[in-house]
Amino acid sequence: MSSSDKKTLFQKIWDAHVVTSIPDGPDVLYIDRHLVHEVTSPQAFAGLEKRGIGVFRTQNTVATADHNVPTINQHLPISEPLSRFQVDKLTENCRKFGVNLYGLGHPFQGIVHVIGPELGITLPGMTMVCGDSHTSTHGAFGTIAFGIGTSEVEQVLATQCLMQNKPKTMRINIEGELANGVLSKDIILYIISKLTMGGATGYFVEYAGSAIRSLSMEARMTICNMSIEMGARGGLIAPDDITFEYIQGRRFAPQGEKFEEAVAYWRTLFTDEGAAFDVEYTFDAADIAPMITYGTNPGMGIKIDETVPSLADIKEESNKASFDKSLAYMGLHPGEQLLGKEINYVFIGSCTNSRIEDLRLVAQFVKGKHKAPNINALIVPGSKQVEQQAREEGIDQIFREAGFELREPGCSACLGMNEDKVPKGEYCISTSNRNFEGRQGPGARTLLASPLTAAATAIAGKITDVRELI
Amino acid sequence: MEKFKKITSTAVPLPIEDIDTDQIIPARFLKATTREGFGDNLFRDWRYNNQNNPKPEFVLNNPQYSGQVLVAGKNFGCGSSREHAAWAINDYGFKVVISSFFADIFKGNALNNGLLPVQVSEEFLATVFAHIFADRNTELEVNLEEQTVRITGTDLVEKFDINQYKKTCLINGYDDIDYLLSLKDKIEAYEKTSKYLSLVDLKQEVEA
To answer: Where is the Aconitase/3-isopropylmalate dehydratase large subunit alpha/beta/alpha domain positioned along the sequence (chain A) (predicted)?
Structure first.
């Protein structure tokens, strides 16, 4: 193989999906799977209607309701009229256009990025899109998956294709062994703190290295999920035996001989030795500690035992106005220690950390303990299937005894489109992906951290270094 | 989509970096099912207090500044992919956003809606801000055909990049869907030859 034949994993998948290229313009990319939810689709379906056309490939399209759904009494009609209208609109559109919908009440309903993998809809080597920036989650399977806007949702519904410029490629290697108490959430918060929130804009990122290869599929999803928080179009990880084991037997995955045939193909999906990336970084896993954010973007993260930096410590990426504005919003000041700070809200959920593995990890930690009296601890599973599994494993009982509130599945307090919001001025340790101003409700102050840090904080009633407890 | 060739307008300065789409249009306003009316809630939480009264310190509430051009700090439009952000900026009356860096998805969403994102150098952005703050009547001329942005009445001008395909679309008011629909035969031919599609039986999904 000559050096020019050597391809990155990203290039292999991209090249296999180019229908045609426009000279001096974008490629026309074929999309294998299109995930749809209620917030970013109504205007797209209305566009099809206006043009008098249908959904081009309904069998490539899967819809669910997640952003607006309440997390209690899901068997009742949604009480908030606008949310109810948007969810009803999705149901109506899916019926009219023949799209498969896992809506409220369906045993497969859940957060769009949780149900794709658990149902075997997400498979290696695919192209996947959704009108949601965290579509990057599916990259954990060695899939080109990225978020799109509503006009692009309409393009894909109409033609199963998307006009896209090929992004640049970046590889991030994490080498070595992770310390005890350090989760994949800490890895990605650490990477974003190093690269800053615009540091990967224009790139598609491949995560590699021994620390990444050692992770479970669900831990890999957490990393790919937050690729967008450093501006990346998406993140991906080469599929391996851990991937194939996860997929085998899932509802919509190929079965039997088809599965073996697929695995043989999936084994060709890796970056060739010597293939060139536009940028490459390598970090030492041993340098990663439990992380926490102090500011109003996911790049403003520190190791949990560090202090809030001062402007002088900040690299060129954040200007003085944004940094001061951020700390003023958070009610924090430079040099402040976050460890030991009393906070009142804990949210465990979102497409970043609401999978069964996250719930198991938290349950294992809180078993036999009880949350501190000042804490409101909300746990929201990512899907009906996760909820069901938690019940079967007795995890629901553990949470109840520990004083945690286990809700019904949905996006919940990650972005507060439903009733689950953090009050103005209150601090919340959140396992979600964004700490933007007002993200969890107007005036809410979000500190992003791993599920273990969230659990330890819930028990202690103050920000806690989980390494001291395990 | 509306055609875009050239505009000359005063500008609204917003010198903040990393403005995310949650600030441009908070999630609670995403429940509409049409594209209209989002301008009322553009920068809602920066623009209004809890009692829904305008905050006088925010630039959109400052009668001194107006115009069809929004000038913002680096990394504009990061975060959520919500196209509602581009709709809100458009609906409010802006035709151009100038910054030294844009998030990818926002840039694509803007271009798909006839809102022109103009990426300039850090130095030129600083010059533009300085001129606007020195004189609020400063006009900017944004010429898409020439790919230039000029501070009118001065020789301060900078060229900007834009994908040539997108440029043609904007100038003519075309959108991507019309073009893609014309490729139906090619798309169907691709489907027949795709090795990948032969591996996965797509039909099994609809039966669920």
So the answer is: 11-461
ipTM: 0.94
**Are the C-beta atoms of B20 and B78 separated by less than 8 Å?**
yes
**Long-range pairs, A80-86, Cβ under 8 A, ≥24:** A80/A418, A80/A419, A82/B31, A82/B32, A83/A417, A83/A418, A83/B31, A85/B31, A85/B33, A86/A38, A86/A39, A86/A42, A86/B31, A86/B33
Report the domain count for chain B.
1
For B16, the closest of A132, A251, A321 (CB atoms) is: A321
Indicate the domain borders of chain A: 8-269+277-287, 291-468
Q: Write the pLDDT tens digit of every residue in B111-142.
A: 999 999 999 999 999 999 999 999 999 999 99
Question: Which class would CATH give A8-269+277-287?
Answer: alpha beta
**Looking at residue A77, what DSSP letter applies?**
P
Distance of alpha carbon A223 from alpha carbon A351, whole angstroms: 11
pLDDT at residue A241 is higher than 60: yes
Asked whether residue B186 is domain-assigned, the answer is no
Measured distance CA(A46)–CA(A154) in Å, rounded: 9
pLDDT of residue B201: 62
Domain assignment of residue B144, yes or no: yes
Candidates 3.90.930.50, 3.30.499.10, 3.10.20.30, 1.10.20.10; correct CATH number of A291-468? Answer: 3.30.499.10
Q: Which element (helix H / strand E) includes A455? A: helix A451-460
Which residue range forms the structural domain that includes residue B83? 6-174
User: Model-level pTM?
Assistant: 0.96
* Probe site for chain A from B33, B91, B119 (most A CB atoms < 10 A): B33
Among all chains, which residue has been given the structure tokens 């990061």?
B78
Give the CATH number for residue B12.
3.20.19.10
Asked if B175 is an interface residue toward chain A (Cβ–Cβ < 8 A), one would say yes
Structure tokens at A464: 């806690």
- What one-letter code names the amino acid at A16? A
Measured CA to CA, the distance from residue A229 to residue B73 in angstroms comes to 18
Q: Is the pLDDT of residue A316 over 60?
A: no
Residues in chain A: 470
Q: What integer pLDDT is reported at residue A320 of this predicted model?
A: 65
Q: Is it the case that residue B179 has pLDDT exceeding 50?
A: yes
Instruction: Residue window 126-165, chain B: list those with CB within 8 Å of chain A.
Output: 163-165
List A21's β-bridge partners, or say none. A27
Domain for residue B52, yes or no? yes
Report the distance separating Cα A44 and Cα A34, nearest Å. 13
Percentage of chain A beyond pLDDT 70 is: 98
Mean pLDDT, residues B9-31: 96
Band (pLDDT 50/70/90 cuts) for residue B208 is: very low
- Which pLDDT tens digit goes with each residue over A107-120? 999 999 999 999 99
Residues within 8 A of A (CB atoms), B 21-40 only? 22-23, 26-28, 30-35
Q: pLDDT of A189-240, one tens digit each?
A: 999 999 999 999 999 999 999 999 999 999 999 999 999 999 999 999 999 9
Is residue B201, in this structure, part of any structural domain at all?
A: no
Q: Which helix (H) or strand (E) holds A49?
A: helix A42-51
Closest Cβ–Cβ partner in B31, B78, B181 for A197: B78
**How confident is the model at residue A25, as a pLDDT?**
84
